[in-house]
Amino acid sequence: MKAIWLENNQLQLRTDVPIPEAPPGEALVRVVRAGICNTDLELIRGYYPYTGILGHEFVGIVEQGSSGLLGKRVVGEINAACGQCRFCKSQQPTHCENRTVLGIVNRNGAFAEYLTLPEQNLHPVPDSVPTDVATFTEPVAAALEIQQQVSIRPEDRVLVVGDGKLGQLVAQTLALTGCDLLAVGRHEHKLANLAARGIKTGLADAVTDRAFDLSVECTGNQEGFAIARRALRPRGTLVLKSTYAGHLTFDASSLVVDEITLIGSRCGPFAAALEVLAAGKVDVEPLIQARYPLSEGLTAFARAQERGVLKVLLEIDAKS
Fold this sequence. Notes:
Helices cover 25% and strands 28% of the residues. It has helices at residues 38-45, 86-89, 131-134, 137-149, 165-175, 188-195, 222-230, 252-257, 270-278, 297-304; strands spanning 3-7, 10-14, 26-36, 52-53, 57-64, 73-76, 79-80, 100-101, 114-118, 122-124, 157-161, 180-184, 200-202, 212-217, 232-240, 261-264, 288-293, 311-315. Strands 3, 5, 6, 9, 10, 17 and 18 form a seven-stranded mixed beta sheet that branches. Helix 4 (137-149) crosses helix 5 (165-175) and helix 4 (137-149) crosses helix 9. The mean pLDDT is 95.
């Protein structure tokens, strides 16, 4: 089968990768659509030593599996857990000590014609949700995870730093809480997507220091972290939502003096993500900027790496 393969920080389009065989408890999924995200780009830059097929945002059709899933259009949670370690036994499978992670850790990913995942990871996509929209289930779930970790009230002042793919989804999902929300970034045309949904937006100079209860850093760079940090009042909460390829430098003493709560945040609830997408509460279509067939995957990655580009989709099976 065709696949986008990463090895020694170099991408290649391969046509000789065997179709995977699903082990017991897993399903064989024919991939229909897949999205390139910043984590994929960070893996190329060396964020984590990975060799194999990239990709973890996908929609596919189950070709081999139990009767309840066979033939269904699905999305999939990316962490395949062992079910036996202390984290699995305490209902925290995303931190499983023995987990593999689709397209990230010891498991081939979604930029291929087929993949396998445990059946318990798969979620049928409602008929009302278009395939392109369903491709965003994983990042929407990641955005919703913030609300699983932090209680957000309507009176809270909340800042989202970053107007990229993730920042836009985080802002849209946080807006559902009714909080006093401000989203800032560098690109007015991107911020316009949020302004059109009634979300307050601005550039970095719109941020008042020490004025926010919660800030969410979605840029993955030093400057974004600095903005998110200085925006917080004492005893505020800083959520880190991005992966960082390099090292982050910050004033740890200021975190102690201001008693700042620092929270890392990544994977989130798929069922809730599909619900908000089906209800139209989050609009992802303006984020799609390009589509390429899998055979043009290297061109797709080059486009995704261009400054200011939002979501690039790979049409693995354009007919589905």
